[in-house]
C-alpha cells in the first residue's frame, strides 16, 4: 500500500512555499506593527501563532521564521516564566501610520509625525437591500467626526468605557483586520488580546454596534468578523497571491462552499452574564434577544442598521422592536 500526493497537489505545495517566501517581508512588517500596537511591545508566540494562516505565516513560525528578522523582533523567554514572547527590537516611525491614513492621505513621508490623535472617518458599507430601521439624525456623522487615539499611540491613559476608549478600539480592530489576507479574523482569537491591546471587555458589542464598519458572521461553530470595506457582497475585492492559491486548492479538492444546516452554538466568551444578545435559531441564523430572551429580529445577516456609537446597545434593540410593531 502506498499513498502520496498527486502531481497537481505537489505543484500547489511548491507554489505555496514560494508565495510564503515572497510574502515574508510584508508579513514581518505586519507582525512588527502588531507588536508596536501593544502596551509592552511584546506578545506570546502562542498567541501570534493563532493568526498564522490569517497573516500568511509559515508553518515553522516558532522554530525558524521568528528568528529571521533580528533587526525587527526577537524571541525572549523571561527567567522563571514558561511563556515565550516575541518582542519588538526597533520602532519604525514610518510603520506607525495606519492603513486608513495611507488610503486617505496617500504616500507617507519617510519621517512622519509621532502617532497621536486622528480625525479620519471610518469607511462604512451597507448591503444594497439596506433598510433604515430607525432615524437618529446626525449621530452617525457626529460619531465619524469625533477624534480618537491612533492604535500606535500609548493608550494607558484612556478611561475604560469612555467614548474615546471605544473608538480607539474600533481603530485597533480596523488596523488588525487590514493586516490579514482575507480581511477577517475569528473573534475567539481577538478576545485573547484585550490586555495587550488595551481593549474593552465587551468586544463583541463593538462589532455588533458598528456593523457598517464590521460584519459578524457565524459559520459552523466559529464567529468571524469581517472588514466590510474590503468586500463586494461575499467577494473579497483585492486578493493577494496567497488567497488566490487557496482558491486553487479549493477547486482542486472540489470545494463547493460551506454546507448548510451545520450544528451551531451561541457562545460569547466576552459577554457579561448569561443573557447573550445573540442566539442561533433553528435555521442557523442570527437573532437578537432582549433581556427576557424573547426573539426580536431574525436573520441578522440579511438586515443591517446604521453605525452609531452614540446609542446604547439597548436603544438598538428597542429600535428593532419598534420596527416590528410598525
UniProtKB/TrEMBL annotation:
<dbReference type="InterPro" id="IPR045040">
    <property type="entry name" value="PORR_fam"/>
</dbReference>
<dbReference type="InterPro" id="IPR021099">
    <property type="entry name" value="PORR_domain"/>
</dbReference>
<dbReference type="GO" id="GO:0003723">
    <property type="term" value="F:RNA binding"/>
</dbReference>
<dbReference type="Pfam" id="PF11955">
    <property type="entry name" value="PORR"/>
</dbReference>
<feature type="domain" description="PORR">
    <location>
        <begin position="2"/>
        <end position="255"/>
    </location>
</feature>
<protein>
    <recommendedName>
        <fullName>PORR domain-containing protein</fullName>
    </recommendedName>
</protein>
Amino acid at each position: 500500500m502506498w499513498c502520496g500526493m498527486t502531481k497537481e497537489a505537489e505543484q500547489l505545495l511548491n507554489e505555496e512555499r514560494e508565495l510564503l517566501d515572497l510574502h515574508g517581508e510584508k508579513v514581518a512588517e505586519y507582525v512588527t506593527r502588531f507588536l508596536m500596537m501593544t502596551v509592552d511591545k511584546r506578545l506570546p508566540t502562542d498567541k501570534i501563532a493563532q493568526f498564522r494562516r490569517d497573516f500568511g505565516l509559515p508553518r515553522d513560525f516558532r522554530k525558524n521564521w521568528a528568528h529571521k528578522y533580528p533587526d525587527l523582533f526577537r524571541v525572549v523567554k523571561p527567567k522563571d516564566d514558561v511563556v515565550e514572547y516575541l518582542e519588538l527590537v526597533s520602532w519604525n516611525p514610518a510603520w506607525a501610520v495606519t492603513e486608513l491614513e495611507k488610503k486617505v492621505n496617500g504616500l507617507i513621508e519617510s519621517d512622519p509625525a509621532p502617532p497621536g490623535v486622528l480625525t479620519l472617518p471610518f469607511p462604512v458599507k451597507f448591503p444594497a437591500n439596506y433598510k433604515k430601521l430607525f432615524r437618529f439624525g446626525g449621530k452617525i456623522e457626529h460619531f465619524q467626526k469625533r477624534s480618537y487615539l491612533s492604535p500606535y499611540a500609548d493608550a494607558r491613559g484612556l478611561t475604560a468605557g469612555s467614548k474615546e476608549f471605544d473608538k480607539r478600539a474600533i481603530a485597533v480592530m480596523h488596523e488588525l483586520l487590514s493586516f490579514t489576507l482575507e480581511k477577517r479574523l475569528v473573534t475567539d482569537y481577538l478576545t485573547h488580546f484585550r490586555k495587550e491591546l488595551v481593549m474593552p471587555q465587551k468586544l463583541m458589542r463593538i462589532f455588533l454596534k458598528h456593523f457598517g464598519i464590521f460584519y459578524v458572521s457565524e459559520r459552523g461553530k466559529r464567529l468571524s468578523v469581517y472588514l466590510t470595506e474590503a468586500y463586494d457582497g461575499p467577494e473579497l475585492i483585492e486578493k493577494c497571491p496567497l488567497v488566490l492559491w487557496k482558491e486553487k486548492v479549493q477547486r482542486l479538492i472540489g470545494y463547493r462552499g460551506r454546507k448548510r444546516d451545520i450544528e451551531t452554538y451561541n457562545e460569547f466568551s466576552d459577554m457579561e452574564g448569561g443573557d447573550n444578545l445573540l442566539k442561533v435559531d433553528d435555521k442557523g441564523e442570527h437573532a437578537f434577544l432582549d433581556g427576557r430572551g424573547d426573539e426580536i429580529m431574525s436573520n441578522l445577516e440579511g438586515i443591517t442598521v446604521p453605525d452609531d456609537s452614540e446609542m446604547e446597545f439597548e436603544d438598538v434593540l428597542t429600535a428593532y422592536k419598534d420596527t416590528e410593531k410598525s
